[in-house]
Predict the structure.
Amino acid sequence: MDITFSAQDNQFREQVRAWLQDNRPHEPHPPMDDLSACRDYDLAWQRHLYASGWAGIAWPSEYGGLGLSLTRQLIWYEEYARADMPPAGVESVLFVALAHAGPTLIYSGSEEQKAFHLPQILRGEVVWCQGFSEPGAGSDLAGLKTRATLDGDHFVVNGQKVWTSRADVSDYQELLVRTDSDGPKHKGITWVICDMNSPGITVRPITNMSGTDEFCEVFYDDVRIPVSNIVGGLNNGWRTAMSTLSFERGTAFIADQVLLEVELKALQALAGKTRMTDGRPAIAHDDIAMRLRDMQAECNALRAMTYMDVSRNMQKALPGPEGSMTRLFYSKLSQRTGQLLMDILEGEGLQRAGRYAEDIERYLYRYAATIGAGTEQIQRSIIAERVMGLPKSR
Ligand SMILES: Cc1cc2nc3c(=O)[nH]c(=O)nc-3n(C[C@H](O)[C@H](O)[C@H](O)COP(=O)(O)OP(=O)(O)OC[C@H]3O[C@@H](n4cnc5c(N)ncnc54)[C@H](O)[C@@H]3O)c2cc1C
């Protein structure tokens, strides 16, 4: 394992820093609850990155990427977080496309699928969503029932997905369908690319606890999907889905992980200048000072874990189960960072439209961090069974 930066890496960092300094967008990012404005903004920003030669840093160059190492991707995210740029992680509408649909296609897609979809993603032309969860299949993903029946060179899909983030502003979906009901349930699943503009798809937004319509129910009534849209083989979708989740749990959150360090610094500054109801600055309260100190130490640990993951993932095509440790550690730490912000703000934390609106929005959204991409309990089971080698839970 090598977690040091070479002289060339440092030179790359300087180039990134200089470019970011000159290219900060003039327009602020729209609020997360205005999804169609977020779509326009994030796509325009991605087009700018592509035109400037900064899109797909670790993606293969034959599909429009830069073909550089994951270390360079990490450096990009570190500088990006420090430069206060538009969202690059889970808050971007391009998160699914860039962080796990694209990587899944690179890993398992056919030549035609890669050549068609990857450049479109990098050029900022399309938004993807993830159609995995169903009302009866979340943690028990293999229990999914949305059915695809063969009809010539097409599947006819019927069923329902739920919690599909940004389905209403998406062009494509990574969709899991049941193509065989006879054998073991995880052996009859297929991963297909679904065009979200296909006839027969109905999208119904769901309002979450922070008041945004971030995710949706998606209904499929005789939706026709070409068989050529299968990724990774018929009835082999469980394997393809596990690779998608490996990226989602392994590398997808690097941008958010490095951003947390910047957020914590802002929180320290806020604690220094905010007077609490007893008239003393927040930082003068032992409880708050100690929590800030502990979080700083944990942020350092998170950075070390991120570096280790990057180094490990450079040796192989697919992130391993160790990514679940970092993902879980990040999720819990990000939730506690949000809780500390609320404790410092006291009553002001209840003013959703005030000057801390964006931070409060983020705090609420972070509750989802231990649910999406596998709940906290599922991540702990993965760590226990697949990293530590403990006996399987029943
Ligand atoms: C903000 C957000 C965005 C999301 N976006 C998407 C998306 O874009 N696409 C998509 O497909 N899905 C998405 N999801 C859904 C997410 O993947 C599921 O919510 C998650 O997998 C849990 O499934 P569930 O909600 O059905 O809960 P359940 O699986 O019913 O779990 C309920 C509780 O039981 C526990 N539990 C269940 N099984 C076990 C077990 N074997 N061992 C221990 N505990 C267990 C869980 O940990 C949880 O606490 C999103 C979720 C959120 C919160």
Observations:
- The beta strands are 128-131, 147-151, 154-165, 172-178, 189-195, 201-206, 215-226.
